[in-house]
Amino acid sequence: MSSTHTVTVLRGFESGPTDGNPPSLEFSIPYLRNPRSVSTSGTFNVTIFDYTGEILYFFNETLANETAPTVSMVGYSAPNNLYLQRSTEQNGLVADYYIQLQSSNYIQESDIIWFKLPDGVRFSLDTECFENSTQIGKQLPCDISSD
């Protein structure tokens, strides 16, 4: 799923044409949201038009080379909160575990959440997938597997 987000500079050069060497344009765009993934993004696309709409300069992913500007995140976000509560703390008994995860990143419909049980905690013969999520308000589809 992809969407297009653009910034257009209109009438940014009203002071007159630049003489001599081409100018270096520098600006910042505040409050952009970084990608959710640590995978490298696509390249930034730039097109400069003259006043009639004719293209003067065009740079996009198909023209990109190794120096094209992309975005890469350097680390994963940790959850803001991970809370665990058990119905019993008695060793060897079957217990119901309540898990509350407050993500630090937004979650999309196609995302997968993977919970790995710590050493010593095992599925019982009666283990089932999650009950209804109180936040989402519906049954969460899941698979249970063990090695």
Beta strands, count: 4
Overall tally of domains: 2
Count helical runs. Answer: 0
Rg (CA only): 26 Å
Average pLDDT, all residues:
76
Order of helices and strands: EEEE
| Class computed from helices, strands and strand pairing | mainly beta
Q: Give helix % range.
A: under 10%
Low-confidence stretches: none
Numbering strands along the chain, what is their spatial order in the largest sheet? 1-2
| CA-CA gap between termini | 34 Å
Q: What overall geometry do the principal axes of the alpha carbons give? A: rod-shaped
Largest sheet: 2 strands, antiparallel
Strand content: 5-15%
Name the descriptors:
147 residues; mainly beta; 2 domains; two-stranded antiparallel ribbon; rod-shaped
Q: How is this structure best described in words?
A:
The protein is mostly beta strands and 147 residues long. The chain has 2 domains: 76 residues, no CATH class; 71 residues, no CATH class. 0% of the residues lie in helices and 14% in strands. The protein has no helices and 4 strands. The strands form 2 sheets. It has a two-stranded antiparallel sheet with strand order 1-2. A hairpin with a 5-residue loop joins strand 1 and strand 2. It is rod-shaped. The model has no long low-confidence stretch (mean pLDDT 76).
Give a quick rundown of the structure.
The protein has strands at residues 46-49, 55-59, 81-86, 97-102. It is an all-beta fold and 147 residues long.
Give the helices and strands, then pairings.
Blueprint: E1 46-49, E2 55-59, E3 81-86, E4 97-102
Antiparallel strand pairs: 1-2, 3-4
